[in-house]
Design a protein that fits this description.
With 137 residues, the chain is mainly alpha-helical. It contains 4 helices and no strands.
């Protein structure tokens, strides 16, 4: 399962060269840059299935259901990651500066729209899930 995002995760591992922008979204690590991915609204996995781990109900979950929850969370994280690749491909074609950063922003905006539609009261938890999914790519 994905852990909550912390500021320790945001630290850059290497020192950038002079004039180089720091970025959390490593271009080399973006998978699926050459394929198209469905919009997150069309993905069959929903945040309501994953929202169980963000509520107090998680203490009463059965051990048999933990694997199913991990599988749904993994598929949703993979869908978010593939949308990052699709957005990166579009931004690279449009010759935008820092296409990885723009692609991450657009992907997180889609995550926010999906979260508002499915679990509006847990919107920030869903965004946290999206950021962590992008960082663990």
């Amino acid at each position: 399962m994905l852990k909550p995002f912390t500021t320790a995760d945001a630290k850059v591992k290497t020192k950038p060269r002079k004039g180089q922008q720091r970025s959390l979204w490593s271009v080399r690590a973006i998978t699926g840059r050459n394929t198209t991915a469905p919009i997150l609204k069309d993905v069959p996995e929903i945040f309501a299935d994953v929202a169980v781990m963000w509520e107090r109900k998680v203490a009463r979950i059965k051990v048999e259901d933990v694997d199913a929850l991990k599988a749904v969370a993994g598929r949703l994280a993979t869908a978010i990651e593939s949308r990052l690749g699709a957005h990166y491909k579009e931004m690279k074609k449009a010759a935008r500066q820092h296409p990885g950063d723009v692609a991450a922003y657009l992907t997180l905006r889609e995550v926010d729209e999906k979260a508002c539609a499915e679990v509006p009261r847990l919107r920030l938890r869903a965004l946290d899930f999206g950021v962590k999914a992008l960082l663990e790519k």
